[in-house]
Design a protein that fits this description.
Elements lengths: L2 H15 L3 H19 L6 E5 L6 E10 L8 E3 H7 L8 E5 L5 H30 L5 E10 L2 E5 L4 E4 L15 E12 L2 E7 L3 H11 L1 H4 L3 E9 L3 E8 L6 H6 L4 H9 L4 E6 L4 H8 L7 E5 L4 E6 L4 H5 L4 H10 L2 E6 H6 L1
Parallel strand pairs: 2-3, 11-12, 14-15
Antiparallel strand pairs: 1-2, 2-4, 5-6, 5-8, 6-7, 8-9, 10-11, 13-14
Helix pairs in contact: 1-4, 2-4, 5-8, 9-11
Protein name: Transcription termination/antitermination protein NusA
Subunit structure: Monomer. Binds directly to the core enzyme of the DNA-dependent RNA polymerase and to nascent RNA.
Pfam families: KH_NusA_1st, KH_NusA_2nd, NusA_N, S1
Length: 347
Amino acid sequence: MNTGELFEALGDIVKQKGIDRELVFSALESALVSAYKKNYGTAQNVKVTVNRETGEIHVYAQKVVTEDVYDNLLEISLEDAKKIDIRYQLNDIVDIEVTPKDFGRVAAQTAKQRVVQEIREAEREIIYQEYITKENDIITGIVQKKEKQNVLIDLGRLETILAPSEQMPNETYNHGDILKFYVVEVKKTSKGPQIVISRTHPGLVKRLFEMEVPEIFDGIVEIKSISREAGSRSKIAVNSRDENVDATGACVGPKGVRVQNVVNELKGEKIDIVKWSKDPAEFIANALSPSKVISVEINEEERSAKVVVPDHQLSLAIGKEGQNARLAAKLTGWKIDIKSESQVEEN
């Protein structure tokens, strides 16, 4: 590869990868300084310039103008400097061209690897900046393949792993499946940006509702808390800032279409939408939906609540394997003890 070909190749890279043109040429100039010193070394302070239009390369030895010259490689006398340009003064830097005849060939060979490395790093930075804005947001990816317990996901500019802990139980991941993921974290590593994605994170439910419900996006309805057992059931507590807007109704949507879209994306995960209240007793009663609640007795100090439900509603309030009570406790932040009417009467 000669300098002309190298210059052309650099131009193509700039266009294809969207990397700053000046960054590429600065990297090239830096690489050429190293190339000159390694192959020639006839000057100690060296500057290399690459013409941005033609690709022409020039090497300059840089010397300080002094009264007495002790080192010819670093210094030049005022008298000699003025022979080059009458305007030179003491302590100025004089650029003296020392471009070797065959430097173009050496430059092309030596600079290529360094420039490619710089471009790779610049490309990684561009990708990192693109994905860091998606942290705590939703991203769409395509399932590539399963490797042992991990699932390889194509996110467009890069691929990442969906770890077993971030996979929804009972969800199958087949090649070509298009899914939405929650971006938990974007990290810089020596191998480029690393993205941690999840299908189990409560943030996935939150962001899906924000996308589906205009009232949430507009800030009229707010999501106060979420509790989730991925793949099985989620509870979401919502509140309206406008008394004329029903928060739960907005999230359910006309004919249930909004909540159904979220359920479909989560492969049938059940979702309870409950009304948040600043009154803990009312909030806890709502959180135990779909069960009906007779009474809630609050213990502020222990942050616990004793809840009484109709006899026929006890199993519904507790839920299968205690799930409904467990999710309600997570949603409200209160310990919840549930008893039926007859259990309370017996005591």
